[in-house]
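Reminder to self: tokens first, then the designed residues, so the page reads top to bottom the way the pipeline ran.
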């Protein structure tokens, strides 16, 4: 029992109500004050240039998958009759937008039961603590990204030293593990490289025409300002290459990703608005992105090796 619950226990003995005993396992890591301050903090120039907090009108991508993110960073809501699953929290400052986007589509943040994360960078994990507070949802994350999520900071890469409210991880998942809710089953695929615990999720989804599709929530395989030579962590280069090989063997025809440019968000949404119900269905998109990223990775590795000589 922690001190806070011990004190609450004394209060309870004196007849004061407290939910501490039941909630002891579910204490948040970030206080309300920390979350509130982060949500109100001015945006970092990096966040402004990436359009990470620029509003975007929410919409249904396909079936029960909805886009509730910003223009430059994604958040996906998967709705089911038994509650919802939310992938990624963008920035702390994005939390009110995400909650508003969910509401605009006719859903309620309080019905979100699980929070998932592509990877533990501030632009995808910064809002998770605030979203956990608003929903009471269980945070599901990989073992390798868990320490970053629970520290609210990462020691390398482009978002190094950009702290965010730490998020309590309630369930650790590994490769092939699933999260099931209301008939929807998401499968975790470990795709390390961009972070050590970078997690790609897949989900079967039915299109408007009744056809079955496979959605893939791509973690990210971009180098994006990270040091790959020398490696930011041991085994980084091998991990990237194994991830490219793994994704090359995967089949999915609805590619979704943490940033708009990786899955042509604006162009596909424009086509959808023009009447193409299958604007996000593209069996070649994953392969195309994967080869482009693999080529960019090898190019950047060569460049960094050259610069080091
Ligand atoms: Zn990232």
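Designed residues (309 positions):
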């Amino acid at each position: 029992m922690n001190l806070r619950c011990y004190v609450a226990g004394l209060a309870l003995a004196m007849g004061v109500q407290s939910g501490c005993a039941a909630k002891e396992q579910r204490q948040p890591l970030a206080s309300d004050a920390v979350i509130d301050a982060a949500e109100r903090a001015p945006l970092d120039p990096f966040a402004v240039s990436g359009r990470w907090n620029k509003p975007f009108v929410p919409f249904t991508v396909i079936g029960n998958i909805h886009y509730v993110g910003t223009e430059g960073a994604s958040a996906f809501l998967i709705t089911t009759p038994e509650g919802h699953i939310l992938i990624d929290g963008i920035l702390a400052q994005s939390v009110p937008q995400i909650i508003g986007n969910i509401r605009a589509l006719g859903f309620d943040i309080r019905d979100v039961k699980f929070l998932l994360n592509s990877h533990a960078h501030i632009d995808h994990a910064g809002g998770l603590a605030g979203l956990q507070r608003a929903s009471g949802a269980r945070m599901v994350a990989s073992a390798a990204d868990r320490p970053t999520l629970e520290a609210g900071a990462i020691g390398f890469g482009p978002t190094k030293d950009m702290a965010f409210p730490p998020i309590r991880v309630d369930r650790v998942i590994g490769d092939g593990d699933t999260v099931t809710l209301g008939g929807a089953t998401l499968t975790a695929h470990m795709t390390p490289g961009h972070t050590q615990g970078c997690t790609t999720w897949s989900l079967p989804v039915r299109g408007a025409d009744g056809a079955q599709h496979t959605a893939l929530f791509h973690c990210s395989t971009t180098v994006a300002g990270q040091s790959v030579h020398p490696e930011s962590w041991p085994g980084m280069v091998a991990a990237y290459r194994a991830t490219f090989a793994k994704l090359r063997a995967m089949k999915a025809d609805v590619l979704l990703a943490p940033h708009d440019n990786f899955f042509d968000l604006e162009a596909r949404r424009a086509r959808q608005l023009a009447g193409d119900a299958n604007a996000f269905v593209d069996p070649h998109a994953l392969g195309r992105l994967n080869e482009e990223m693999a080529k960019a990775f090898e190019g950047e590795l060569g460049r960094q090796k050259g610069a080091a000589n």
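DSSP finds eleven helices and twelve strands in the chain.
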